[in-house]
Please model this.
Amino acid sequence: MRAARLAIAGLLLAAAGCAPAPEGRGTLALAECRLPGLERPARCGSHEVWEDREAKAGRRIAIQVAVIPARRRAPEPDPVLVLAGGPGQGAIALASQVAPLFSKLNDTRDIVLIDQRGTGRSHALACPTPKDEALQALFEESLPEKRVRECLASLDADPRHYATPPAVADFDEVLGALGYARVNLWGGSYGTRVALELVRRHPGRVRTATLDGVAPPGMKLPLSFVADGEAAFVKLLADCEGETACREAYPGLRGEVDRLRARLAKAPAATRIDDPVTGEGQPVRVTENVLLAGLFRPLYSPEIASLLPLAIQRAAGGDFNPLLAQNLAFAHRLEENLAVGMHLSVLCAEDVPAITADDLAAASRALFGRALVDDFLRACAVWPRAKLPADYLDPVRADTPVLILSGGLDPATPPRHGEAVRATLPNARHAVAPRLAHGVSGHGCAPRLIERFIRAGSAAGLDFACLERLPRPLFVLPAKARP
Model:
């Protein structure tokens, strides 16, 4: 969920609002390339930066760039810059997912994807996964200290230089090399933290910012998942209770969860599930931690979460396959494009140090507990930590036009974080889709709202009622209860 900063030439940026797009006008040479899932060719290149930006000495790393050119020959000078989440996701790998979202804007504006340092193909801090790792690991929300140490030893990098601030400095430098004076930011999850830091450090560079699922500095990841995840789960139970068919099919769901959790804490259950790669059945040990991860992950998507009541009921009866199966796709997608070392570099510098003893005491009493938090505390005791600017955790204050999108059911970045950020941005508007979860931009009328916001350069006059009407998917009922 975030990224980094630095600055030069504020007056030049402000005066260069009509600078041309980069095709042959910047210093960064781009060549035609093909990105998976895109019909049209893109243009790709790389730009070297200092790993240690402050010392300007030692290792240099290549920042990879992909530009999906505007369809028109005379495009607008301000492109859309996509900022990926995670932290640890590469932006270029998301091209096929974000291109449809910005399809109409792409008629007149370039779409720019930059793999943040430590992600994708930009000197990724990827931790090797043991070839013989069992399927069990996909269901465990854990960071074994042994694996953390092995990851650290495998890196050809200094993790202290891979937090958000140096990455933001990279972005500013790369945008200048591309020839863009101003850009329209779109960030999702951690990408919103990157966007906010760009707004803070380089306000002249940013024309507009769209923040989808705000993860500001200071939210104390992964601690915030404990409270926000429980709130989303309680809403799910309440929504099931509010639907007659769901209430009758799954009475007393919270009690089922509490009893199941207590049972697994005393004696984990053994089951088997098909490996999605080999197709062979593999044993899985269902612990309390596996159960809690299985309840939390589906909350990111209302479509997947609609299966949770059925999965809970089946698990209470001893059949854990529905609960585990709906987590497999989520786990695989996460592993495919997430540099774990980069994830640790950000959280260990920016979030975990702020977690207090009182925070941990409160987490111990919550539904999801503090298991994941404890894992990060142990990992971050090993992981080298970046030094942050003194004002890094301060609220961002700027006149930049900002559109904030939040899902009311989001277990990770719910509206409370978006509202806190909006309070210090006078030209920001906060739109909540009450029955969506993590990621609003691709749903219903949201793409049209983003398009209008970027074209106008202002969120004034936008009507968000269409987001409020988007429904939660119907809960999946057992076969005997279906009409």
